[in-house]
Design goal:
heterodimer; A: 273 residues; 2 domains; globular; B: 427 residues; alpha/beta; Beta Polymerase, domain 2; Rossmann fold; 6-stranded parallel β-sheet; 4-stranded antiparallel β-sheet
């Protein structure tokens, strides 16, 4: 299992390097190899997670190390789909290094105690964890697309076309892909919350318990709901949508990590280290 | 190029925008119908064996193959002077003359648009193809020019695909389209409003239409003029006062009026952004003084490029092309060496040697095969060897004498080329 994780990280690093090379030297073989490396890393990573799950019988979110690893895995997976679907190669310079960063952070943390006897594996828990992580990965990509959008918009408005203008895709593609990521992320987040409620009901007997994690998840959900609502009604798009995607991700990060580190609650084991 | 006196020389004589001002170039340019007659007349000159004439607004070049290069150069100069009825001194200083490798290099460079006024512009290749088509039709090109021109087309195509020499826009209308693509992704179905009129603005509209832009609207202070222009673009004419209304659904505005004040102001645009539900709008302001308030560029999802901005884009792109041209040069240098190798192979001696070694190797292989069957005694095998040698000599005797004969009629390179092809000596 250890060797698989190491292999996965190695491939992720290779992929990030190739994406960076692609940014500077615009050769097709670079992004193709970057994509292939990321896919290979993802397969190794998946194998490592499945192996760990089979060995322990617990879904691997018992401590911060495992949680981060799952987050990196989800991000790699979602990015593979997004690049395949939208042909947005340049997003790799955001996604691949981020995956590497997450995995590097995870590998520095102790494997530590992971069993929390109050957690029961069942369908609802697995669905809850899977959809939350995939949704968060989609939001992370929306944030990256927002950053790219702002860079490209600034390039066009400032009329300085030197480096980014030809390397970044059109504003329209960045905007519509970001929107697609938010829609996907929002759907997954909603599913994740609902399955979480159902799970809470089966374990603790009530849907909602004013746990800080729950409250902040609701805040995040409402934030993205407003963003989508505004886009559909008054047409929030472009710059404003990009900025909101970035802020939204900051809120999400706080919900994901900040709440656990600063506040207390029943998701504590999640980030134990 | 070649010290071998048997070999004809490739010579290129010409003037272009770098060596001569337009007053000189226009005096010696050959128009479409003239070119055919001129080409035939040139070909009739005794020293000129093959010839191709290229005449565009930026250059006049004569590419020829000759056995007497000094004579041919003289005759060509006289011909240009005589045909255009001007004296030689008028243009002689502006002429450049390249021979051999340098001439080949020059042709490759010109066709690849490395020598153009606007580097990377694509028309020149078409013009050379046309010139070659004419030469081929009149049979003024022969083995050498045919080969040279085919290599030229290959090199030009390779440079276009392998370098970014033609990638970036270097004219106002192309720059506008390039920018539009970066904003909208695709221009397909995007509505265009033309305010005013003018050559550059109309060119830009045409270019947008070629990129599948959608409906075209034309606003002009004089409505009749607007109607006429709209007809040209198969669009709709609108009143000047309706511009504000149009902005609600237009994606690209091209403005080119003589108005001293802004035709479209910041407030006008600000009020429609919300109605447009923030869909991006792109203003191209070609007018001087400007038609569109530059403050519009600071509104969200609205972009303004005036004529200086577009020129700035073009200058940057030009720099890019110059960098790409360096890569193109390398490809040209490589191709010149390749052509040189083929050209040298046209001399008689290597061809005779190659022909002999080819026949000998065939005979050798067959003898070895026959001997391997074991039915032949060692005594007989000596006889067999001897016989095969005299066979080779007898077979090759006449062709060798023919190829070596000094007074070989007509074009020697034709025969050499034919022999090389017949016996596949180039592989």
């Amino acid at each position: 299992m250890q060797i698989l994780t190491v292999l996965a990280i190695l491939f992720y690093v290779l992929s990030a390097a190739a994406y960076f090379a692609f940014l500077f030297i615009q050769k097709d073989y670079l992004y193709r190899s970057a994509y292939a490396a990321l896919a290979t890393g993802f397969i190794c990573h998946t194998a490592a997670i499945v192996y760990g799950f089979a060995a322990s019988g617990q879904i691997p979110v018992g401590n911060l190390r495992e949680t981060l690893s799952i987050a990196g895995w989800a991000l790699a997976g979602v990015f593979l789909v997004v690049q395949y679907r939208f042909k947005l190669k340049i997003l790799g310079i955001f996604a691949a290094p981020l995956v590497v960063l997450i995995m590097a952070a995870a590998s520095q943390l102790p494997a530590g105690p992971s069993q929390d006897t109050t957690i029961f594996n069942n369908f609802w828990l697995i669905a809850h964890v899977a959809s939350i992580f995939l949704g968060e990965a989609a939001f992370a990509l929306a944030c990256g697309l927002g950053v790219l959008y702002l860079i490209q918009e600034n390039t066009i408005k400032a009329k300085k076309h030197r480096f980014f203008f030809k390397r970044l895709p059109s504003l329209d593609l960045l905007d519509s892909t970001g929107y697609a990521c938010i829609v996907a992320g929002f759907t997954l987040l909603t599913v994740g919350l609902v399955t979480g409620f159902v799970y809470a009901r089966t374990v603790w007997g009530h849907f909602w318990s004013w746990d800080p994690k729950e409250v902040w998840s609701a805040v995040t959900w409402i934030f993205y709901a407003v963003l989508l609502h505004e886009r559909l009604t008054v047409g929030w798009r472009g710059r404003r949508s990009a900025i909101m995607a970035i802020i939204g991700f900051a809120v999400l990060l706080f919900t994901f990590l900040g709440v656990n580190l600063l506040l207390k609650g029943h998701h504590g084991g999640f980030t134990r280290w | 190029m070649n010290t071998n006196t048997n070999m004809p020389d490739i010579v290129l004589i010409g003037i272009n925008h770098k060596t001569a001002p337009v007053e000189v170039r226009e005096c010696i340019a050959f128009s479409e119908p003239d070119a055919t007659a001129a080409l035939e007349a040139l070909h009739r000159q005794p020293d000129i064996r093959e010839v191709l004439l290229l005449s565009t607004c930026n250059r006049v070049e004569v590419l020829l193959v000759t056995d007497n290069k000094l004579g041919a150069i003289e005759k060509t100069k006289n011909f240009i002077a005589g045909y255009n009825k001007i004296s030689i001194d008028k243009f002689e200083a502006a002429l450049y003359i390249h021979e051999g490798d340098a001439a080949v290099h020059h042709v490759f460079k010109v066709a690849s648009s490395l020598d153009s006024m606007v580097i990377g512009e694509p028309q020149i290749l078409g013009q050379i193809k046309e010139a070659y088509r004419r030469a081929a039709a009149l049979k003024t090109s022969g083995v050498i020019l045919n080969r040279l021109l085919h290599r030229t087309f290959f090199v030009a195509k390779r440079i276009r695909t392998e370098t970014g020499i033609g990638d970036r826009a270097v004219s106002i209308s192309f720059a506008a389209v390039e920018l539009g693509r970066k904003i909208f992704g695709t221009l397909e179905g995007k509505t265009v409003l033309l305010v005013g009129a003018g050559e550059m603005a109309e060119l830009s509209v045409e270019h947008l239409i070629r990129n599948k832009a959608g409906d075209i609207y034309v606003a002009n202070r004089t409505f009749e003029n607007g109607v006429a222009l709209a007809k040209k673009f198969k669009g709709t004419a609108v009143n000047f006062e309706e511009i504000s209304d149009c902005l609600k659904f237009i994606d690209i505005v091209i403005s080119s009026t003589g108005s001293p004040d802004f035709v479209i102001t910041r407030n006008q645009v600000k009020s429609i952004i919300r109605i447009r539900r923030n869909r991006p709008i792109f203003f191209i302001d070609i007018a001087v003084p400007r038609d569109i308030d530059p403050a519009v560029n600071r509104l969200t999802n609205s972009y303004v490029y005036d004529i200086d901005d577009l020129q700035g884009v073009i200058d940057e792109n030009m720099e890019d092309r110059n960098q790409e041209a360096v890569k193109g040069q390398r490809i040209v240098d490589e191709a010149v060496i390749g052509f040189r190798q083929w050209y040298d192979s046209l001399t008689v001696v290597p061809t005779i040697v190659a022909l002999r070694s080819k026949i000998e190797s065939i005979v050798e292989a067959e003898i070895t095969r026959t001997l391997r069957t074991g039915n032949i005694s060692s005594n007989d095998s000596g006889i067999l060897q001897k016989m095969s040698h005299s066979l080779v000599n007898k077979i090759l005797h006449d062709p060798t004498v023919f190829l070596k004969k000094d007074g070989m009629a007509a074009d020697k390179s034709v025969y050499i080329d034919t022999v090389r092809k017949l016996f596949k000596l180039d592989e």
